[in-house]
């Protein structure tokens, strides 16, 4: 968790791809829609072939229909969380229906006339709903509804009133003026949105809005304008359709550029989070990618500071007045753990974010547990180190007390005992007894000397590791060599003590168990590491579990953050290698 | 004989002073730090310096370092270093010069007053007094050493070890249950093996000890 290098799974600049284990049924549905629309176009072309006069017009309509259909399906496929794709597919249907008039089948002609201008309403709808595909604000909703009323409702009225010229003209006038209002309101809404957008969004919104608005206006005005120049119906229709065919492509590009593709399912994301031990920034990236909003940010709640912080622990300003950004709080057992800040124009469905939030909650909770574990582990390591240091201090104190106190006492006692015997006029028996007593005191002193030496050798106190190791090697009962390249003064006392006791224990084991004829000790300091190697040519078979003091020493090495290895194959000698850190 | 004592433990310092004075030594000064010790030596130029190894302020090895400096500056002043623990490295450092006048003993040896004062007088006269504890280390190493010292027989090593302790031929003979004549023969063989020039016996003894000590220390260990 601590290693930010793990982000390496995910290149920092490219979105994380979280692959779903099973392709959702949505994909299947899109395939079915695609096949259906292909077939519808083929049917239209086939029927159109029966009326050779209109075949060219049928072909142009079918081509435009397919362009809309293809753009819609691609948008839907790449951005399953965005309704734009569905809307474009709906536009394709309206183009299809609009083209049925050319088939000259009675029922279809009526249908086709009623829905002839629906494509304009769809275009207005797309403009208002971009980029999420969802309408925002009552004005937008009202405008789009008005657009559909003008395009379908009034068109239907015109169809029914075709025999009543006065009513027809009146409705026609209403349709034209209402259509103009819809266009003006749409233009105002778009301009307001452009002004509110940030630089990045503005760059992708502006060309789309311009093209969309102009296309809608031109499509509605083309017939009057061109007819006055005496253009034929086919040319007019073709130009209208060409203008309309540009719309789905423009929206497709807009949708795909607005964010990166939503690449996976929430379940896949949660599995990935659970398995990979993702870092915080990787979690945020994965969420952004999964939801298809590259501006998505994940904030974490800091309980100590009572504020949100980002991936790196820097505080996040609380007030966010941008109406385009929403914040969803993430809770674990009603405890606030973080928040997801996202662009509500990119993600229309709060449910998706909430689901993502649940996944995030798991990740955050897991991270909290991991952090607690790390903290308690760290505390444990510190306490182990303190124990070792305390033990060393105690050892030093005991050795010093014995050295300064008891050993001196024994020298003085021996001296006094001897002086009783050497005093003038003392009986021979007393003299002999006093010498015996002095010798016994000497014996006790020798025992004490060995004890003090085992607790903490004088050389270690007086000179450091090399001298102490040398004294050890000097006194080994089997031939032993020492190579020591160490700056004794640079070593911390815990390192010095540990290294010394390792050599002492290894030598003791070699003498007691290995039947070796030679022991080689190497101690060298390489940069900030102290390397210790004790090798013998004995019978091998030593192990940490064999009840020797090795286990305790390997624990000590572990506490200091070093490594301990023991190779002791049967009859092939024993090599013990220890690597200790020694900050100098 | 004039003596300066360096020992930080007050009871021991006074004990030493008493036993030395009782034995006819003149104690010029008895101090508790290495710095004071060197000052007193400069002041009194004694025949003999007795010093502890660990003394204030760091209580590590300043007594030893002071002893080595005193020997360098005043080769005529004999030095006996006392310690709770003896080791080869210190013995080697003390006996670096090509001369005697060095003693290196466990503190506990003080209690055997007769032997101790005899050791002091011998060292003051240019002899050596190395502790049996450190001699045993040297002998075991010398037995594995290459070069001339490695060719000495175990018996010869025992003899040269006892010489290093400062034992007389008579003392060696009684310790090894040999005749004094046999000891003299061993000593002569040792001198020959170490190629020591024919000289006064005392000086040859010191040279033999120094050869033995430096051979045991400088040879590649274990070879």
Please explain how this structure is put together.
By secondary structure, chain A is of the alpha+beta class. Chain A has helices at residues 25-48, 55-78, 84-99, 106-114, 118-129, 138-160, 165-196, 199-228, 233-258, 266-276, 280-291, 350-422, 428-455, 458-462, 465-474, 493-514, 550-559, and strands at residues 297-302, 307-309, 325-332, 335-343, 480-485, 519-526, 529-536, 563-567, 574-581. Chain A folds into four domains: 27-258, Rhopdopsin 7-helix transmembrane proteins, CATH 1.20.1070; 266-380, Beta-Lactamase (2-Layer Sandwich); 388-455; 464-581, Histidine kinase-like ATPase, C-terminal domain (Heat Shock Protein 90, 2-Layer Sandwich), CATH 3.30.565. Chain A has 17 helices and nine strands. Chain A has a five-stranded mixed sheet with strand order 5-6-7-9-8. The longest helix of chain A is centred in the middle third of the chain and has 73 residues, at 350-422. Chain A starts with 24 loop residues before the first helix and ends with a strand. Chain B is α/β, with parallel strands linked by helices and 223 residues long. Chain B has a six-stranded parallel sheet with strand order 2-1-3-4-5-6, sandwiched between helices. Chain B starts with a strand and ends in a 5-residue tail after the last helix. Chain B has two domains: 2-130, Response regulator (Rossmann fold, 3-Layer(aba) Sandwich); 134-218, Response regulator (Rossmann fold, 3-Layer(aba) Sandwich), CATH 3.40.50.2300. Chains A and B meet through helix 12, helix 13, helix 14, helix 15 and strand 5 of A and helix 1 of B.
The gist of it:
Chain A has 584 residues and is α+β, with helices and mostly antiparallel strands. Helix content of chain A is 63%, strand content 10%.
What's the helix and strand layout?
The complex is a heterodimer of chains A (584) and B (223).
Chain A: H1 25-48, H2 55-78, H3 84-99, H4 106-114, H5 118-129, H6 138-160, H7 165-196, H8 199-228, H9 233-258, H10 266-276, H11 280-291, E1 297-302, E2 307-309, E3 325-332, E4 335-343, H12 350-422, H13 428-455, H14 458-462, H15 465-474, E5 480-485, H16 493-514, E6 519-526, E7 529-536, H17 550-559, E8 563-567, E9 574-581
Parallel strand pairs in A: 5-6
Antiparallel strand pairs in A: 1-2, 1-4, 3-4, 6-7, 7-9, 8-9
Helix pairs in contact in A: 1-2, 2-3, 2-9, 3-5, 3-9, 5-6, 5-8, 6-7, 7-8, 8-9, 10-12, 11-12, 12-13, 15-16, 16-17
Chain B: E1 2-6, H1 10-22, E2 26-31, H2 34-44, E3 48-52, H3 62-73, E4 78-83, H4 88-94, E5 102-106, H5 113-124, E6 128-130, H6 132-143, H7 148-151, H8 154-165, H9 169-176, H10 180-193, H11 201-218
Parallel strand pairs in B: 1-2, 1-3, 3-4, 4-5, 5-6
Helix pairs in contact in B: 2-3, 6-8, 6-11, 8-10, 8-11, 9-10
